[in-house]
Amino acid sequence: MSSPRFSRALFISVLLLVIIPLLILAGLMIGRFYLSSIDQANTSLQWQARNNAASLEQLLFKLEKNSQLLSSTKAITELPNKVVYSQFALVQLQEFVAQNPQIKASIVIDNQGFIVEGYPITSLNLNYKLTKSILDSAKASTQQNTVQIIDNPQVSELFAPAEAKQNALLAITSKLLHEQDSLSEPIIKTGVLVSFVPLSEALKWLAIHNEQPVYQAGKQVQITAQDNILYSVGDAGDHGKLMEQASISTVYFQGKPTRLQFQINEAKTTYTGAVKQTAILAGLLIVGLSIFSFILVRWLTARLHNPLNRITALSREYALGNYKQDTDDFHYQEFKDIADSLSSMADTIDIQITSLQLEKLRAERSEQVKSQFLANMSHEIRTPMNGIVGFLQLLNKSTLTQEQAEFVRQINNCSDVLLTVINDILDFSKIEANKIELESRQCDLVALCHDLILLFKPSCDAKGVGCRLDVSSLQSLNVKCDEIRVKQVLINLLSNAVKFTNQGEIVLSLTLQSRDEHQTAVVLSVKDTGIGIAEDKVTSLFNPFVQAQSNTTRKYGGTGLGLAISKGMIDLMGGTIAIDSELGKGTEFTINVNFKSLNPQDASAKVHQLDENIQFDFKAIDKPILIAEDNPINQIVITKYLTQLGLNYELAENGQIACEKTLTQDYALILMDIQMPVMDGLTASENLLARPDFGTPIIAISANAMKDDIEKSAKIGISDHIAKPINFAELEKALAKWLSQQSLK
Amino acid sequence: MWRVFWLAVLLVTFDGYAATINLAHTMKHEHFNQLLSEFAEQSGLTVNSVLVDQKALKVRLVQNTSTSTSTDVIIVPADHLGLDKYANYSTIPDSLIADTTDKRTLETAKLNNKLLGIPIIQGNHLLLFYNKQFVKEPIENWQDIYQIQPSLPEKVKLVTWSFMEMYWFIPFLSAFNGDLIVDNQVQLNTPAMQSALKFVWGLNKQNLVDRQCDYTCSNNAFKAQQAAFTIDGAWALKTYEEALGNNLGIQQLPKLNGEYMQPYYSTFVLAFPNHALNGVNKESLIKFAKLVQAEKFQTLVWQKLQDIPVNTEVLNNLKAQQGTELSTLIDAIQFTKPMPSTASMIIVWEVLNKGFIRYGSGALTAEQAGLFMQGLAERSIANEGDE
Lengths: 745, 387
Prior knowledge:
Mean pLDDT of chain A: 84
Largest sheet of chain B: 7 strands, mixed
CATH superfamily of the largest domain in chain B: Periplasmic binding protein-like II
Low-confidence stretches of chain B: 1-18
Distance between the termini of chain A: 78 Å
CATH class of the largest domain in chain B: Alpha Beta
Low-confidence stretches of chain A: 605-612
CATH class of the largest domain in chain A: Alpha Beta
Oligomer: heterodimer
CATH topology of the largest domain in chain A: Beta-Lactamase
Strand order of the largest sheet of chain A: 2-1-5-4-3-8-9-6-7
Number of domains of chain B: 2
Strand content of chain A: 15-25%
Shape of chain A: rod-shaped
CATH superfamily of the largest domain in chain A: LuxQ periplasmic domain, N-terminal subdomain
CATH architecture of the largest domain in chain A: 2-Layer Sandwich
Number of strands of chain A: 21
Number of domains of chain A: 5
Distance between the termini of chain B: 30 Å
CATH topology of the largest domain in chain B: D-Maltodextrin-Binding Protein, domain 2
Radius of gyration of chain B: 21 Å
Largest interface: A-B, 22 and 26 residues
Structural class of chain A: alpha/beta
């Protein structure tokens, strides 16, 4: 689970502490603003409705008075009875209409309801039923003037064709009262003057009077009477309307007096627009603030992040071992302090590492010195050992008494033990120095195990211990491995088994686990019924110089390197070695290792090698053997042995002499010591082999039984290599091999 | 308008007590007031003249019966003498008529064989004025007017006249062989009347003439050279000459359907309401009456107003001196017919107007309009007689 990021935590903190409170505050304020706006809107609408209603009442009053004034003129009052006034009355009506723009028509109706005169001429088309109705309503009123509502689309079409739809008209009537010289009837009613005012015109006047439009977007104005909408203009939408109305004046509608109402409907959005804008503005501000906060947080985190990154990078550089870094360019003191602390720590680590490196170098140097010492020791021990072993071998071939022969045999055993110790030390040092490289040659593991049983059977028989091989049904098991090293490991284990087993048996087992064209998995085990190992000692058994018990060395001998070397070898082979032991009952070492599988070509090569084991007649060699050896003892040992074999020889004390001799004498073979004064064996061999016509085999003889030496020999073309102390059997075999090849040429 | 009228009347009346002649007239000529004042002043008379709308003056005269105020003298179309019942005109003694006055004109000033007015200007007939800019030569037939229309600029009207005034309806009625009074009988419900109504309103419906364009509108349009033709009275010649100069063309009304469009021939007369001629300003009024019939004023009538004088000597002199305009005016008279000088004429004009409007508004068909007019006229005339 990843750790939370500091920048996110900072941003959430800002969000919680600033943005959300701001949102809540803005919401409260906008809500309050909304309620206040609606309240103000209602008040405003109420004022508008009252104001407009009052204005319309004023208009109607003015029109009534103007109508009354016209109706009182003699030409109009007498018009129903005097045709001679017609044209003049028509002019008067025309002027009246012109002077009162809200009036779209004026007519004079006589007492029967007929139109006597009217302007414009379209008014003459009003039907009798209507004019009679107007007359009757006017007569019914006690007032001289009345305002009647004519909600008749045909009449509206006549006087306000552009806005005829739902546009009622007000008919302002004034009774025509004619004064006459009569005591009984001084005033007679001759008719009615009727003026038609479309409500649309009244509202137009209202707009002019108010110097502002009566309605606008989102607003609707209606003139109503008895809940009937007489005129409606504008659109307040279908939802969220505010409504206020005010009474204008009393009118006659459908023959009955009623109140004319001015009603304003207005969409709430008109007033809430500001609220909406404020909300949007607040929203934008909050969004802006959020963005600003985000940027600020980003900036702050960047200000923190960059130095943190630098410190992280610094730490990584330190982790990579780059302890010399610049820590001065941090902006903030805190980071500078951290960097300084890190730098101080790095300096300390650097010092420690430098010290460790020095120690390591020292250790490596010491290791090299040790290896060199071991190599030298090996050489220096092998050289006299070569003499000892050589002479023992020569002595053993001479005629000896039984007692002398027994002495020689004991000396030979001691020298073998000594050689084993030397080889163990040498192998261990090679393992430690990681200088062992395994070979990969064909090997029949079954045969190898069989040979080993045969090898150890005499020792087991001598101790009365059984010794057997368990290979199940395997007849052979050919793999590619370093046979010598495999054998070395098993010999170590078998040697231990024989050493620590006094009764029972020792079993060498070989099991094939699996096999494919690449790998062959085998299990090798050595099981004995010996003294066993205590459980607490088992884990340290593979450590060098360790034996199960402190008195083991005293009782059984040994360097304590055998198991360490074995484990080192198995490790090199990529395998494992395990131990299962019980004190007093026995021990079983189990090796699991994967060898390379053998292909058919490898198998044929082995056959060829086996053919090399042939008997050779050394006396048939007429050419001498050149022995390049500086050590007189070794000279004696080698010359004696060669003489025993029936071979002639010549001696050279160093490589240079050897080279010179070859110029004048043709040799059957050259035995070349490696370490010699004047010119060492390798240089001399190199010089000789550089000659174009040089074909004499060279067998290197060296106390330096190190891999490097053998490799160097092989590299410059030396035919074979024999380690000191010389095993005459090996030497004989090598001689036979190369001399036979030489003789075939 | 009404208030201005009463104010004018009051002023005239007040000055009357100072031996000033208070005069009201309906002459639409803009120079007439100035001419009267200047001429009278030169003759030692003080004349306060005021132009009054003809319809208003008619009402004023009708209403005069119940008032004690009046003017000394009026100059009105002769048909106004039909309001004698209300106006109480002074009968004009023959001695007050100049010998040189055209005797034909005297017939127009008589009501029931009683001379109630002194003719001072004759003719008063309608002519066809045209703008030579749009009309190259006089036309013979009314239909020729239509030929002009395609060549007119966009805002130039084809023909204008005071559509709603019945004086202009008469030539169309005459072209259909109709007349208002035949043998002292009102003849408003006739086929000619119906045809005339249909024809005239048809012109309006075809947008050849604007019914809402009144006299002032028509006059102004022609003066502004925004009309190719206008039908106007002889009295307008001076005004149009000043406005159009050489572009002005004048001719008698053309034929319509092969018949001459005959306007009424009439006179402007001096009349003395409320028997003013026998009142306190009698001497001044007699002097004034003689002055306006005399050669000097009659000459000015042509020179200043370019109206046709009634003084035959002056007329003869002018004929000899003047060019084509006067000849045209005078020649056109032969194609006019005298306006009936009966008392009922004043009612006929009103009834005709009512019928004309009701037909035009669609309230009545032509046939219904004829019946309506005839019936109303007869009832009104009968009622007038009863009062």
